[in-house]
């Protein structure tokens, strides 16, 4: 009897384990994990362009640590501020459903983490996968406080394309010889636009063509015949960037962590905030090839960073090249490789081939690339539209008395606006706190759904009476479940320019883009209602417009802004107040207990 009972218990245990194993295959989400990180924001000494600088980093790394998780995982990231500045962190492109407290923009969803304090960002990855990134969202700290956020498919689930042999993050950024905070402060004092950067970076390095840089050029080690996934991130502060790889074509398979219809290209365009995943097969003659990045400067007669950053796409065991150690590196179980600094024997070898990069002002190439991005299959576009916002986006000039604080164009102070409102952040409480706790006097809900004055928006001769915006913290209320359509219209005030517009808390369908003034009677016929791309950041064409649409299913306060930080700090932003729905799962979560408090 005892043996029989033991046998039965053993059989029951085996059946239970078999069921668990079977369930793990049938329900990949059941294998989701909790991941814990500590991000210490601190001052770090680095050397670039022959000069030693003290910069703000996370964990002493520049770029910062790569977060690698799976769809469905829950993250807890404790941010400890050991720097001298206030800081917040933003997880760019994550929906943060009902959880704006983890979104990060300073004084929008939280008060800043003050020096010596900490805050733990807690969130779950919900049905998102691909390449995103994280960055500081306080002052200009994101110039050096940023890194990759890579979301792999749920455990046990494949990519929608053949699995690459290796994966490499390619983080693009800008570098100033001066402290970026000092650059911003000078601009805010004088009223002049901030100085442009001194070089573009790839994975933290300028590359072979900048002073004192060639020994540290980033190397991407590859093996002949293998296919690699490059996860390209534009973390630059103020520059849209062209990227090309000599001797190879790239196949675009995702943008902003959403899979796309694959297409081949020799050039990729990314605005600040955007990401693009490309597959590259190492089919060229074994050797060394430059990956190059340079600015797309859409505005006429406006200064820009005219450098070209390079990394080296280097074949393992190519003739004349020492071994590069082309192992998987970071995360061997996924094949996620870590591009290496070339201050090692891998730097030696024949001169790399240089790519054919577009001219800095090549708007045709920029537009042609953006127009190729499509959803991989037909989608159901939300409709009909129940709330619509038509907003101008562009520059403005504030009149002031000539002097040291009035050094903008024609003795003015430089600014920017949406629908003539130059956005001002509060400084005593965040917008989300004010909304959640119903604190009066922090913001108004009268952001105009239409421009206050109708004019020829893209004219090069906009009347000067229309150049001065008004300052305000004016939000736009959205009903939960509304179908929202936003039309972003560039203006010719001071200068037309392409603006990468980012909506926090949402992905949206890009129905159409075009040049000139948007005309619904004419342009609605251009809407792609079959396979429009889903983005979190859209480049509104220079002197043109873009139409995006989304379902308002994420309650809270969500910032809408240009991701060129010189424009954001000038006021090119607004925020949406999305109401709670009727059920608990349609309402904003209560704030966490360790949410930073505002104070002196």
Automatic annotation (TrEMBL):
Keywords, in A-Z order: Apoplast, Copper, Lignin degradation, Metal-binding, Oxidoreductase, Repeat, Secreted, Signal
One cellular-component annotation, GO: apoplast
Plastocyanin-like domain residues: 41-154, 167-318, 446-581
Cited InterPro entries: Cu-oxidase-like_N, Cu-oxidase_2nd, Cu-oxidase_C, Cu-oxidase_fam, Cu_oxidase_CS, Cu_oxidase_Cu_BS, Cupredoxin, CuRO_1_LCC
Residues annotated as signal peptide: 1-32
Keyword DNA-binding: no
SUPFAM superfamilies recorded: Cupredoxins
Keyword Metal-binding attached: yes
Coiled-coil stretches: none
A Gene Ontology BP annotation from the UniProt entry: lignin catabolic process
Obligatory cofactor(s): Cu cation
EC number: 1.10.3.2
Protein location: Secreted, Extracellular space, Apoplast
Reactions that this protein is recorded to catalyse: 4 hydroquinone + O2 = 4 benzosemiquinone + 2 H2O
Family label: Belongs to the multicopper oxidase family.
Function: Lignin degradation and detoxification of lignin-derived products.
Name of the protein: Laccase
Organism expressing this protein natively: Triticum urartu
